[in-house]
Every structure is written in structure tokens, then in C-alpha cells.
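Need the bound structure for nicotinamide-adenine-dinucleotide, inputs here:
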Amino acid sequence: MSRAWHFHSAGEIVFGRGAVQQLGGLARRLGIERVVVVTDTPIIKAGLLTQVVESLVQAGVAANVFDGGEPEPSLTAVQACVKAAQKSNAQALVSVGGGSNTDLAKAATTLLAHGGSIRDYFGEDRVPGPVGPLIAVSTTAGTGSEVSGAAVLTDKERHLRASILSNYIRPTLALFDPLLTVTCPPRVTADAGIDALTHAIEAYLATDYRYVALPEGQISIYNGKFPLADCLAVEAMRLIGANLRLAVHQGTNLEARENMHLASLLAGMSFSNAAVALVHAIEYPIGMLTHCTHGAGNGLLLPYVMEYNMPARQRELREIAVALGENVDGLTDYQAAERAVAAVRRLEADIGTPMRLRDLGLPEEQIPGISQEVVGLARLMRNNPRPPTEADVAAILRAAW
Ligand SMILES: NC(=O)c1ccc[n+]([C@@H]2O[C@H](COP(=O)([O-])OP(=O)(O)OC[C@H]3O[C@@H](n4cnc5c(N)ncnc54)[C@H](O)[C@@H]3O)[C@@H](O)[C@H]2O)c1
Ligand SMILES: [Zn+2]
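Answer from helper R.:
Posting the output first, comments after.
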């Protein structure tokens, strides 16, 4: 079978200190005159909404505000957002926040364009066509959702985290103003930053795009590992290795904030075309059961999954060690790969990432059930360079417990 990789991103990316001041003008150039701004209370309290609304209003864009955003957004929040957009007859949504508000706006935009129930769109390639314009203003350095084709939601009734995956839901415009991330508390900074590192590492270690076992006729937004995604991932890792500690412990350091914001963008462009894999697959049930943040859960699992993937990916792990600033001269690939895992563990210790599943309050008896659920996530399993069995996942979980 012939194979080619594809690359998608946001329609336009704007990056720079003070870029939020350009927002209104950029919206006008897209022909937008009425928007609903999708945000949440901490963002408003941090003073970020004012800057967004000022820029819109100065450019003559009428802005109503929906402030019902929440971490790991629920389907109820999506419905409320849809209602707010319909009520104000908005032409576009402008999300202001981290991955949670961006994903909420993506899901609402999908419903506004195509109707039905949000569950109709869960899974890969279920969105039937383009959605309305969506502008994503980023306030965390983490998820890359501003450029990705994923929206992750919490289905409380079914007790699971479910994703819409479609190239149609990538934002029309993604705006990164690093000054908007300065108010991020240290915990949010650490968790979001380690999520970005997980994205870069999972993309870089993923199954090669030529060997992804995609069932005939099925479309995935994930290609597997390919050269362009590799370049983006390596630079993201380098920036995170050099800047995440400082962004967490000295939040007013603008160089560190800007470098982390760029890293999250690059990692987002990488994973959203290459893949995320086993770390994310295990994190979804763990996050649901323990209510840890997505970043904390990923960070905890990342070194264990790197160790599991080592037999299939020693050379790539060597490159990861180098990107994270390790000296691997004179080491075998295996020794250098171990350095990569150690470097991740050291970074996580320095920024306070939880290290063991028991510390998140996960009962050990849950391990068999989680392992069964994880191997069922075919779309993530086929991207992992070493396809795990249920027993492998259970062993990873026991090691992390
Ligand atoms: N769609 C994707 O591609 C993708 C990828 C990875 C993760 N996610 C999802 O993204 C969510 C996590 O997003 P996140 O890590 O960006 O955090 P978040 O959006 O959940 O925000 C965390 C908290 O920080 C606050 N906050 C955000 N920016 C702030 C700022 N500048 N100042 C003060 N407070 C601020 C928010 O109000 C919120 O209370 C999860 O639901 C996760 O599943 C999505
Ligand atoms: Zn993630």
C-alpha cells in the first residue's frame, strides 16, 4: 500500500509578546463582526479577558462573553456554550484559555455547524464537513489544542474522557501572546509544560508513518512519526528542557514563558499530525478515576512508558537525551536511552510532578480494569512503537503504582 504523510495546523498562527492587541483587526480581516468569547472565571480574575475584549471592540467587533468554561470540560458546558452563541447570533467563537476552553469552543463550533448530539462526533473523522470560524487565544503553554484537530471532553454519565478527532475542527486562527501566560500559577505551568513534553516525546517515538496499521478505508488525523513532525518535536523538547523549570519557579521570567509558549505550539503541531500513543491512552482512564490533571497524569506515566518503548526506540531515545541537554558521548544507545528517562524524571522532580499512582489515590485493584480499557483504544495503540498487550499495560501500571 502506498503511504504519504499529511500536515495540518491552524489556518493562521500569530505569535509574539503583545499579539493580543492585534486580535480585533485579525478578526475583522476574517470578515467577523459578532463573536462570543469562551472563557472561565480564573482567566477573568487574572485580567486576561479585558485585553481580549478591548482589542475586539476597538476594531468594531461586537463581543458577548460566555464564562462557563471549566477544566476538562463536560458535555453540559458544551451545550451551554452552544446556547450562548445561538442567543447572540455569533459568527464565530473566540476561546480564551488553555486546552479546556479551546476544546469546549471546538465542540460547540462543531454542534453549531452540524447539529445533533456531541457524542455523534466522538472518535476519528466523524465531523462531516467544515465548521464555522474559531479563534483560539492561548493562555497556557501546554496542550497545543490551539492548532490541533482534537477536542477532549468529559462524558460524566458514561464515566469517560472522549475526543472528537477531525482536521475540520482545527482553529481558523491561533494567537499566542506569551504575556498572557505570565499569570499561570506554578501548578498549571508545570502540568501544562509536562503535557507539551509528553506530546513531543510521544510524537517522536511513535510508529513510523509507513508502518501504521490503519484499517483499510479508515482516515486518521494521526500519520505516525514523519520527518516534519520530528523537527518540530526535537525543538520543542530542547526548549522545554531549557525553560520549564524557570517558567515554574520564576513565573515572571518572560524569556522562559515565551520559550515555553513556542514549545507548546511546536509540540502541538507535531503530535497533532504524528500521534500521541500509550502515555495518553493510559492517562485518560487514570485522569477520570483520580481527577488528576491531564498533564500531571501524563507526566507521571511518561518515564515508565519510555522504559517500555526502549527496546523499539533506543536511537530515538538517545536523540531525546541530547535534546534535553544530556551528554551522551561514549555511551551505547541503550545507556543513552536510559539517560533520556533519567532526564525526564529529574525535570519532573524539580517541578513537582507526582511520581506514583498511589499518590494520586488510585486503588491498586483498578489496574486490571484499566489495562483492559487501554488496549481497546486501537487508535492510540497502533501509534505506539511497541504494541502492548494487556499484561504489558498492567506491568507498566504496577511499576508506576
Ligand atoms: N485538544 C487537544 O489537542 C488537547 C491536547 C492535550 C490536552 N488537552 C486537554 O486540555 C485540557 C488541559 O488544558 P491546560 O493544561 O491548558 O489547562 P486548562 O485549560 O484546564 O486550565 C487549567 C486552569 O488554569 C487556569 N488558567 C489558564 N490559563 C491561565 C492564566 N494565564 N492565568 C491564570 N489562570 C489560568 C484555567 O482557568 C483553569 O482553571 C485537558 O482537558 C486536556 O484533556 C487537549
Ligand atoms: Zn496531552
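Comments: The radius of gyration is 20 Å. The CA atoms of residues 321 and 340 lie 4 Å apart.
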